[in-house]
Amino acid sequence: AGFALATMSIGWALASIISGRIISRLGYRNTSLLGAGILLSGTLGIAFGERFGATGIALAVGATGMGMGFMNNALLITIQEAVAWGQRGAATALYLFLRMMGGTIGVAALGSLLNATIRSNLTGSPAWRLIHDTQIIDTFNRLLSPAGRVTLTQPLREALSSSLASGMHAVFIATVGLAGACLLLLCFLPAQVPAQRTPAA
After folding, report:
1. Which residue has the higher pLDDT, 24 or 173?
2. Which of 122, 198, 129 minimizes the C-alpha distance to 167?
């Protein structure tokens, strides 16, 4: 997990470094579309690339970071160019605020999807009869801990692992849909944004 997250950070940093030159050649819209396309390919790799092992997943995660790096710079500069000089601070702050809000809402929504999928898979199963609602979090914590895993019976470990894998796969599929929606929305971004060169009145 640490290796995969590291590749995302590296991909984002590399994209941020080279995006300036790409923006000057392709423009804001095309650079944003490039980033969205890379993001979509990365999410597809995460959702369906388990056969390629940890290295393949890490590369897919790195691609998602690179895609977000391209989009972040291109969209930030687009917003700054679209408003008067005196409004750039407010526009940048609003952009960053909305990005953080989107991240917060996204984490909550995907977490809810994960919980709902796990509960749906466990409800009515033999494993469900061995645990109660108040014990779900504790049981999964034991599953994810090497020391706690040995305290669980083999059938329970298998049932919990299967439900957790199904829940994570549902989350990854949802991210593919979000990345596709992002690509679609960016198609409506104007090819040229008239720069505002005069201070706000």
Report:
1. 173
2. 122
